[in-house]
């Protein structure tokens, strides 16, 4: 009887195992028609002009849209994109762009384009953030944090259509970082035709929720906290992105002088025919806030690539044969910013006391493990203006206690540390860092309370200035130093919400403006060194670390590259099972 | 019969009323703005606030407010989620069926495996096969469900790579939600790869169903076994044996149905455990159900969502419990002696 019983149990168990194992058949060709990317959070909007968070630009910028210019991910040089060539006038104030002719917009359920991309779309896209009188300027809150933080709109005198495929932009002052700004994730090109259609229908805000662009994927659906689905854009102008970029980089030097259009076009067409069918039909962002779950999904093949692997997980990924871990030094900075508009943090001595009360090296070890370098100023070593001998704060709790006493801060003084709720390369675990800082501060008699909200609320409250101090950071959008100094600490960046220290200093603003007036790199470098000195003296924020960037993906995925200048790119990515 | 139905419906309505009062008072008990907690809309300016207050009668007495609150609940206006801005009814309308689906399959698994095993063990009580079944079921029953689910994930997903660990179906399939039950929706859909999608959904279902079902199965085995042993010891069994009936006849005529009767009410108690376990396991498998959804709402301090979510889950549990209890009462007249309806 026992034997028959055991036999039955065995049969049951076998059937169960079979059900499980037979069900797993990911080798079906169907699964290679889509790439699933496990992203860390919800995009705030589908228009990266409106938001600077990297979640938004990861999800939208390189998937749905194109820019006039692009960065070459390897060299960092500016390469043609929707603008096939450009000319800069001798006085450095007028930029003329020649546009591509063969670029189609997305054809979706909610919009059918009747024409290809042309100069009106460029005017529409730039004027939207530039002109307060533009019908779309105030749509979706009308806030363009990236452009506002750089004061870009004030510097553009005119954007003019010369003919259907030629646009001229005139600046008021020389700006040596202007082209770089047009190549960032935020300077995307929207469809003017779609805009005017929505305007007629009286539903303009739809432009940011149901997006239309020229990028390699078009929008299909979005469910908050679950997924974003994109479909492949059949008539994408750049059939094979990698080949396209290579061809373009070869032509870049000529590109500056003009007329490479035909050349690159031929290249693309040739490659396009050969590769037409290998690209994926669907791109899916599987929104998975927990980093350990993203890794687990990557291991089971439910994700093909993931965002922001945690530092503790890197070893696991390296040890697995079916996964690839790509790494590159990143253009980013993680810092601890004080709200300099609130007492007592408006006192530089208090800020200094708090800054030297913490041991940055411990934070580096405990939070980043060995995947970041200590930050002295805002710029990482990858930038050309990096200052190796910049002043840095040193751990000194005794001095910290004395400074606090001199500033009239009683022991037991309590403050808040806001720890951002999402992982970023520049701060993979803000909560843990906040706890460490809390402990350091207790030693100098300061009680710190840790505050956190969901990402959207967190950022809104930060912008309102409700924090005492915050652990956050910045990923640069281009290699230009101005991209660090201006958005993070200039007066103009307070309303746009990228100046987390709420710091406004006349000397600082004067210096960083001066740096843009010259194209001589040595002169600019000298000015930025002065800025570093100024920052060290007044310490609106404590620079903590520059992290490496990591991207983990399965070996089946071909054509993934790390883009150090912003969001992840899926154009040209393939999946070979 | 009619009296029983009336009693249960009164009980049902009263319980729901108490729950509605609780959910309404949550709007006042949660920190923050009452208006925002109640509606999920954060008024942009004073004019809008005044208009909303008027619409929801916040300027009137609590009783009037509650009356209109009930009206809104019945007309399906449950407010909006703070974080997504989507009507809560819509969100719950997606999350709830996912939970019910998982719970249903787990219950089916528990019934299909648990009852026959229980009968088998009961009929051969105190034999070695009974001891094996009994030991296994006690062991399984003592597993904390989250631990068991994690163990399944660790072994079958991460080590053996046999089953996916999150979601209802690979996101590559675009299944239109019609009924909310993924398997039915796949059959109703016009997908090209229906078979593949079905297989994919099944593989997603397997682990969570086993995780939840195993524990319910264990308890059903034990309940059934006990009940069969009790029935076997009844004098009428001895009488039947003395009349010379064969083992099969005794089993089918006298034990099967008599043992089944006491099982049903005990199974009703299992429903609450089942739903709770489902909600726990959901979060582990990222199953887009109500448990997962409520946890997200807690993380994000989405008070309107918590208020309605609590009401929805508790209504579901009460509804199921009362229905099953009433059903028991109707098929088992001997329970007439319990005069009052009870949960």
Briefly characterize the structure.
The complex is a heterodimer of chains A (577) and B (343). Chain A has 577 residues and is α+β, with helices and mostly antiparallel strands.
Number of helices of chain B: 13
Terminal Cα separation of chain B, in Å? Answer: 18 Å
Helix content of chain A: 25-40%
CATH topology name of the largest domain in chain A: Dipeptide-binding Protein, domain 3
Secondary structure: number of strands of chain A: 20
Question: What do these coordinates show?
Answer:
Chain A: This is ABC transporter substrate-binding protein. Chain A: Keywords: Signal. Chain A: Residues 1-23 form the signal peptide. The complex is a heterodimer of chains A (577) and B (343). With 577 residues, chain A is of the alpha+beta class. Chain A folds into 2 domains: 48-209 and 241-275, Dipeptide-binding Protein, domain 1, CATH 3.90.76.10; 332-549, Dipeptide-binding Protein, Domain 3 (Dipeptide-binding Protein, domain 3). Chain A contains 21 helices and 20 strands. In chain A, the strands form 4 sheets. In chain A, strands 1, 8, 9, 10, 11, 12, 13, 14, 15, 16, 17 and 18 form a 12-stranded mixed β-sheet that branches. In chain A, a hairpin with a 2-residue loop joins β6 and β7 (166-171). In chain A, α14 (348-357) packs antiparallel against α16 and α19 runs antiparallel to α20. Residues 20-25 and 241-277 of chain A have low confidence and may be disordered. The longest helix of chain B is centred in the middle third of the chain and has 39 residues, at 194-232. Chain B is mostly helical. Chain B has 13 helices and no strands. Chain B has a domain at 92-300: MetI-like fold (Orthogonal Bundle). Chain B has helices at residues 2-29, 34-39, 46-55, 62-74, 88-123, 128-142, 145-159, 182-188, 194-232, 235-242, 247-284, 290-299, 303-331. Chain B is globular. The mean pLDDT of chain B is 84. The A-B interface holds A 1-2, 5, 9, 12, 16, 19-21, 23-25, 28, 30-31, 33-34, 36, 220, 224-227, 229, 282, 284, 286, 288, 293, 296-297, 299-302, 453-454, 456-457 and B 83-84, 86, 113, 120, 124, 127-129, 132, 153, 156-158, 160-167, 170-172, 174, 193, 196, 199-200, 202-203, 206-207, 210, 286, 288, 296, 299-301.
